[in-house]
Amino acid sequence: GQNIDQPTEMTATEGAIVQINCTYQTSGFNGLFWYQQHAGEAPTFLSYNVLDGLEEKGRFSSFLSRSKGYSYLLLKELQMKDSASYLCAVRSTRSNDYKLSFGAGTTVTVRA
Amino acid sequence: GAGVSQSPSNKVTEKGKDVELRCDPISGHTALYWYRQRLGQGLEFLIYFQGNSAPDKSGLPSDRFSAERTGESVSTLTIQRTQQEDSAVYLCASSPGGNTIYFGEGSWLTVV
Questions:
Q1: Is residue A108's pLDDT more than 70?
Q2: Which chain B residues are closer than 8 Å to A43 by Cβ?
Q3: Which among A33, A87, A98 has CB closest to B31?
């Protein structure tokens, strides 16, 4: 199976930058995903990395290093609506069923 | 519909009763997943369907849990003789294959 670790909580100020780290161990790697989940709502897709490097999408960027088993999600120009849980998920090549294994999530609180 | 639909959205049941949770995936999506999320925790994989068959049932926590899918569409997750530790939100997701999985809003189950 996979071990996926990410911090439990982070707090940042509106307008600032926050970086959420995720480390993983997997028997075969076939992609890393970040999802955002607001309290009481379904997770929504943010980003996907399968090759090393940085993927940028507006205020959100995601980075992957496969050799280090490491990813981060960078949130810039934080807004109050960014307060949510951010889930790191890994897909393994052990099966071809596109199953995602999730970390426990990082709760980000944005303060005014 | 436009998204993944789950019912009921909320269910309170007495310990020992059976419950059925329903998922209507996005039309045409061949892959369907069930995840469980306990309060404050990450997503726990339960079962995956490709079409009507379930190649991966590895996450079902006990023989009280079962799931089926018919017509390559609707899926039902059944929990028999519910226990208090079954209290969680049960999330269904569907995918056309590839890199995106779309989640429903979840069914919130409380066992009293």
A1: yes
A2: 43, 91, 103
A3: A98
